[in-house]
Every structure is written in C-alpha cells, then in structure tokens.
Amino acid sequence: MSDDVVTIHTDGGCRPNPGPGGWGAVLRYGDHVKELWGGEPESTTNNRMELMAPIMALEHLTRPSTVHLHTDSTYVRGGITQWMAGWERNGWRTAAKQPVKNVDLWKRLKQACDRHDVEWFWVKGHSGVADNELADQLATRGLEEAVASR
C-alpha cells in the first residue's frame, strides 16, 4: 500500500430495516488511523446508512486526496461507478423514468467524490477483512448511540 493513498472502509445498516440506523468508517493514511461513526435514531434505511458512511469519511478529509474506498454495499459501489452518470443525464431519474431514491445523499456523495481521486472496491461483508469488520462494529456503535440518545 502506498503512503500517499487514504484507504477507507465503510459500512452501514439498520435494525430493523427500515428503522434506527448507524454508519461507520475506518480511514488509514500511513500510520494514522481515524474511526468515524454516527447514526439516526428515527427510521432510516440500510441504503441510506451505507451511503452516509463514505460521505462522512470523504467529507472528513481536509485536502484533496487519492482514496481507495472499500464498501460491502453493491448498491453504493454500483451507484457511484455505473449508474450515477445516467441518473444525472436523465435529471436524476432511473432508466425506468422513476425518481432516484436517496437522491439527496447521491448528490452529496458525488460532491464529496469530486474533491478527491476515488477508486471504489467491493468487499464481501463479514468475510474477515479486518477494517470492514471494524467499520461494521463502528456502524453498530453509531446505531446504539443514536438509539440511546432518543
């Protein structure tokens, strides 16, 4: 791994879905590690929490960076790498002419990505990848803290 790359692992989820949710992110740059987490005490969805994790991680970076972003969400990776350009061309509508769900977060994610050089990677969840497991634990922490704050 190159020292000039920020490596980020993200995760998010709800219990139940929809329901209260949490997100987590692990950011690594050289020897530096930053753990981020948060949550929504009211009803949200897994997909919204999966989107919040990379948004918050990218927004946390203080200068434009080269980023390797790992997610276990095919929804997030597919959306940002395959579908978003078409959604934008179609006025934020799907190929079926329906409004894009979570458009507020997709636009925010695009804006966060535009500051950086981001390469997206999919990782199988709960497969023993240490930082993905940690991001999952942080998402659970975010959910639990959000619920406790109600």
From TrEMBL:
Mg(2+) 2 binds at residues 11, 136. It is an enzyme of class 3 (hydrolase). Its main location: cytoplasm. The keyword DNA damage does not apply. Residues 2-144 form the RNase H type-1 domain. It holds the Pfam family RNase_H. Binds 1 Mg(2+) ion per subunit. May bind a second metal ion at a regulatory site, or after substrate binding. Gene3D superfamilies: Ribonuclease H-like superfamily/Ribonuclease H. It comes from the Bacteria. The keyword Transmembrane does not apply. Keywords: Cytoplasm, Endonuclease, Hydrolase, Magnesium, Metal-binding, Nuclease. Monomer. HAMAP family: RNase_H. NCBIfam families: PRK00203.1 (NF001236). This is Ribonuclease H. It comes from Aeromicrobium halocynthiae. The gene is rnhA.
